[in-house]
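Q: What does the assembled structure look like for these inputs?
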Amino acid sequence: MHSRSPSPLDLLVRKLAANSALSHEDRDHVRSLPHRLITLAAHSYTTREGDRPSHCELLVSGFAFRSKLTGTGLRQILSLHLPGDPLDFQNLFLERSDHNVQMLTRAQLALIPMKALKALAMSRSTILAAIMRHTQIDSSIFREWTLNIGRRAARTRIAHFLCEIAYRLKAGGLARNGVFDLPMSQEQIADSTGLTTVHVNRVLMRLHAEGLIHRSRRTVRVPDFDKLSEIGDFNPRYLHQGS
Amino acid sequence: MHSRSPSPLDLLVRKLAANSALSHEDRDHVRSLPHRLITLAAHSYTTREGDRPSHCELLVSGFAFRSKLTGTGLRQILSLHLPGDPLDFQNLFLERSDHNVQMLTRAQLALIPMKALKALAMSRSTILAAIMRHTQIDSSIFREWTLNIGRRAARTRIAHFLCEIAYRLKAGGLARNGVFDLPMSQEQIADSTGLTTVHVNRVLMRLHAEGLIHRSRRTVRVPDFDKLSEIGDFNPRYLHQGS
DNA sequence: CGTAGTGTTGAGTCAAGTCAATGGTTGTGG
DNA sequence: CCACAACCATTGACTTGACTCAACACTACG
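A:
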């Protein structure tokens, strides 16, 4: 075993190995995928609906999201991506993207040529399985969002949304003592929850007044996660962590 | 090449081969998967949230759907499955199901032991890739539903829903001249679109009065698909057919 | 210090929900 | 074949959660 220099691809290895068993050999193969690092400004797109993606993107730092637009231009945010998340596995076997991928903040991405990733995946089925498992967890989150948007009242819906972010950030080591960064405007929260900006503001104000959340700028503190979970009808089962 | 007797697994072969290139050898392997046929009554479950699925299910005849419930018992239907659709690829690499799978009508299922399917998929990466592609199309449909429920008005939403079903049924050879079976109660349509039964009824009545749809029992006729598509903001791109 | 993006608030409206009753359909068992 | 039960569709009257419109305040940043 020779020593290796740390690489952004370690993030990908960690992500895949967290949910699937990967041999040392598999890990080495992932780590030696060709890639290059780029930095993007907040709001910039990496993929637009209709694009033929040529690279698979790994979010090294910063936040990103996926979205779709209606014919009249209304936006729905479909998912949120935290540092360390791969962004494009959902498109791996589709010719054209059916949604947009956009940065929420300034972000660093590792770009892995789709061809190389696909070739590796096709030659090592454990890696393909690990990727598939990751996309299936992604899909489970889509399903929970559908339930959230379709069947929960605004207050519950927003509480649920906050719980998910808090939980995922904590799992990724990005939250301490219930304090975390949520670099989203209220408009973006509205587009994530199927509500309007004004209504999101009112609900947040009320949650704040009730002491369920504390906000200053883009930092949120949740003093009692269990209480917020109850209000948000949140159960992390759908995130398929551990097990 | 020897002759083969027709089998329910031909449906699976057709489904997978429709979207991915599979060799004759691959097809033969899929066709020779172990399986057994069962018949289920309308409304029966094959999977419940929390279950550890042991079989992968292929819908041979009849209709099925996936759903989740909120803590207070409200239901959201997440997807609809037509004859020929596989039902459980979404759970292939997850230990526990995060949603329910339920029959809409009396239905025939082919049950394929998960182990056998997984073993085949792991030994032939083209097959795993075909399965993955299928689940990714599934996910694309989840995303469109999220947009539909989150950002479109009731009338548009229901029109969109009807267009999707009509389109998919037609693609599967299950609609003629814009006439097709929609074996769903208005309550089920409501749970699919994030609306209430009463409101679904009013919208359907209005669409009917405007001549955009004709209904009798569980049969629907769409005289002008393009017009309904326009009202429903429907574009079949997200179904990733052909290409 | 101006400009653009956000956040906050009030007043008024409306799409969709709630509640409740009626009638129609389907299926089943006697 | 009828009668009952269970489910489903339809409608009216009323309510409300969320939206719209329109100000105004705050913050960040060149």
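DSSP finds eight helices and ten strands in chain A.
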